[in-house]
Amino acid sequence: MDQKDTEMNEKGVTSSTSGVVVQVREKKGPLRAAIPYMPFPVAVLCLFLNTFVPGLGTFVSAFTVLCGARTDLPDRHMCCVFWLNIAAAFIQILTAIIMVGWIMSIFWGMDMVILAISDGYRDQRVPQQV
């Protein structure tokens, strides 16, 4: 089997054992990128609010942007990101009648919790020893 792997590598085709690392990045739209990185308890509260009152948790999360929460839109001004979150909340409220907004609201809340967890893991990095 080693001979087969080396033959593939000699021909310029990378094999699974050659140590190739593939990195995938998610391209986010402006509304999705405007979701703030909040503390975990606040994100869970917003998920709870979005589950029972579509758009309410998204509306609350818009105000965390004004309190300094980070988003994936660093080049946009804080007020622009705030209004993007307000727009997302109104879209969820208006389309909740046909169940689309309610489902979108729940997924939005789950994204908030996922972002809070991923931000928490980034903050808990082990300091490197010198």
From TrEMBL:
The lineage of its organism: Eukaryota, Metazoa, Chordata, Craniata, Vertebrata. It comes from the Eukaryota. This is Stum, mechanosensory transduction mediator homolog. Keywords: Membrane, Transmembrane, Transmembrane helix. It is a multi-pass membrane protein. It is found in: Membrane. The keyword Amino-acid biosynthesis does not apply. The chain crosses the membrane at residues 40-69, 81-108. Pfam families: Spec3 (PF15795). The keyword Membrane applies.
